[in-house]
Write a sequence for this structure.
């Protein structure tokens, strides 16, 4: 699942296959000191620098023609502090490894996204999130950060130390420096009971507020060309553990969600006219189920069918209207959409460029199977999202620029001023940052 590079021609590709780059050179530092030296060397050579995680972003946020930093050797847990209930991890640690290591220690993050292939720094720098009534994105659980800045110096930041940098760098887009370590708040491991069940589209929208208020974690998938959704509620449980049986788990998660779904995508790509029929069948294939397990086994699931994605955060109160407009658009457009639309929520947070900064948010994610033309669908969806002052996920497809962001992020100028101070020569610049943050 990681990003791919072929040493032969030095081309880097992202997971979705829609972004490629040819860096001048690649560095795999084994320590923070080596990373600092690589940044200073790049400055001497007049090259820009970008760190890349597992390439899970669909934007070119990590692409560079300068020095590509691969953090594979900067992995593992540095420290667990049981008094403060924090864990400090190296930036290149995959979320999967962090989750498994914490579970062995009887600890867990409070909330997480639905995949765990990404590195901790890649996931947090782009604002990766799950769904939650009270608990927000992965970055909102950060208590401290270590950052190598443009002159090669190492900067520690937290609420007490360099708080202005901390406010922005938790979701720093790779623009303020290279994150080398992250300290997360953790808690004693707990159990979640997941309740998955189909529900009509109109009912979900009518009851959306109640479903969000009554459940700690609520999300749903709507299948375009149908009036059907699949809902998922995760709530803390006193137990006992009742994991999905291996056979049922394989059938639901591997066979239906990955295997059959992959075949359905191939069929839909080859014969778009079959998509509405496939959608009707897909929406009915997943039956209701309830299971109880430790958090990462409930929050996350494997995603083996490769896709391209756009996701926008709108104010939570604008969600039902946004979705009705999206449904009407799909029905009128003649588009054939074979991937479900994913809807999640997050409470307001205080991170400068978080998609939930200062407002309770609902997320609407649209996907297309990798290799199918997605432009028409995504631009029609984007018109709806931006009409509601939506904020796009920093790591997913969008066409917005600095001018737009200065309108939807009240603290946008705060971030760019900090960037001017920390990276005046734009050592960490690339085409994507030039577009979204301005020159």
């Amino acid at each position: 699942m990681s990003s791919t590079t072929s040493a032969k021609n030095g081309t880097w590709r992202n997971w979705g296959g829609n972004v490629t780059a040819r860096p001048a050179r690649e560095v795999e530092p084994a320590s923070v000191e080596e990373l600092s030296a690589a940044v200073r060397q790049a400055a001497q050579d007049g090259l820009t620098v970008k760190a890349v995680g597992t390439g899970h972003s669909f934007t070119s946020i990590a692409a560079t023609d300068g020095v590509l930093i691969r953090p594979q050797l900067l992995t593992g847990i540095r420290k667990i502090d049981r008094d403060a209930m924090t864990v400090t991890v190296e930036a290149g640690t995959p979320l999967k490894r962090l989750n498994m290591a914490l579970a062995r220690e009887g600890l867990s993050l409070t909330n997480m996204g639905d995949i765990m292939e990404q590195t901790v720094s890649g996931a947090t720098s782009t604002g990766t999130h799950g769904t939650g009534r009270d608990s927000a994105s992965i970055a909102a659980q950060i208590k401290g950060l270590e950052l190598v800045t443009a002159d090669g110096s190492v900067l520690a930041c937290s609420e007490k130390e360099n708080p202005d940098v901390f406010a922005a760098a938790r979701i720093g887009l790779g623009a303020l420096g290279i994150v080398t370590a992250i300290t997360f708040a953790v808690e004693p491991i707990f159990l979640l009971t997941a309740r998955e069940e189909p529900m009509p589209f109109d009912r979900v929208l009518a009851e959306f507020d109640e479903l969000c208020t009554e459940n700690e974690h609520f999300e749903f998938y709507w299948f375009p060309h149908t009036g059907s959704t699949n809902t998922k509620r995760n709530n803390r449980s006193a137990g006992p553990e009742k994991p999905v049986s291996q056979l049922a788990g394989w059938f639901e998660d591997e066979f239906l969600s990955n295997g059959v779904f992959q075949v359905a995508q191939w069929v839909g790509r080859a014969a778009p006219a079959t998509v509405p029929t496939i959608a009707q069948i897909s929406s009915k294939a997943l039956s209701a189920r309830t299971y109880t397990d430790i958090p990462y086994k409930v929050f996350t699931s494997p995603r083996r069918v490769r896709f391209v994605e756009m996701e926008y955060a709108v104010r939570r109160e604008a969600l039902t209207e946004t979705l009705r407009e999206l449904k009407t658009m799909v029905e009128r457009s003649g588009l054939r959409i074979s991937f479900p639309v994913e809807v999640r929520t997050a409470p307001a947070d205080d991170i400068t460029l978080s998609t939930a900064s200062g407002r309770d948010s609902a997320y609407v994610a649209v996907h297309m199977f990798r290799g199918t033309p997605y432009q028409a669908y995504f631009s029609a969806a984007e018109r709806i999202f931006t009409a509601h002052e939506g904020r796009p996920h920093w790591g997913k497809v969008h066409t917005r620029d600095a001018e737009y962001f200065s309108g939807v992020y009240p603290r946008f100028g705060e971030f760019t001023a900090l960037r001017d101070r920390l990276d005046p020569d734009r050592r960490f610049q690339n085409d994507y940052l030039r577009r979204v943050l301005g020159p």
DSSP finds 14 helices and 21 strands in the chain. The first strand starts at residue 4 and ends at 6.
